[in-house]
Write a structure and sequence with these properties.
Strands 1-2-3 form a three-stranded antiparallel sheet, with helices on one face. It has a two-stranded antiparallel sheet with strand order 4-5. By secondary structure, the protein is mostly helical. The two termini are about 15 Å apart. It folds into two domains: about 1-60, no CATH class; about 65-200, no CATH class. It is globular and about 50 Å long. It contains nine helices and five strands.
Length: about 200
Amino acid sequence: MTNEIEAKVKEFVEIAKTCPQNLQEKCFELLMGKYLEQRYGVPAAGTKATMQGADDAGGGEGAAQEDLAETDLHVKARKFLEKNGLTIGDINQIFYKEGSEVMPLYEDLKSTKVSECQLRIALLLALKSGIQGGAFEFDGEVVREECRARKCYDQANFATIFKNNKELFEGFEKYKKTSPMIQLSGEGKEKLASVVKELK
């Protein structure tokens, strides 16, 4: 648990460094406060008012965090687990439930390759979509933002990485910002299953 917090502190320090000097401390405080509140239900000292504002915007008290149950999974997601020898326990190593929202638990994508990280982010977003609505698909622009946040964004090759792995995506020819929704192919779902096994 302590290692996780230490990793978060380092991550937030790096993010704060990208802000102007006079805002770095406030940026760090806000990031850490929100993280502690979401993860443990404990607002950081000095962030109470800010957290209260965030709560009001988000609809009041923070929802309880709990494991997903099989009944929380769309029938297509349950079939995906069955077909690939995965269990609800495996999914609970990667996601948790907060109210009706499925939230990521994973911090480490277990790869140092930018292209592999981009694909893993896409696959895991497709899994989240499959759990909630049955469609194993992702929004490429959400992948772009998460790559930026995780410092694994290759601007020059972002679209190429998808194109070079087009067999993972249904009917994929080329990435278009104007229609960023991409669905996994059968091969993409197999790749997703192997990523789940590696991350759990």
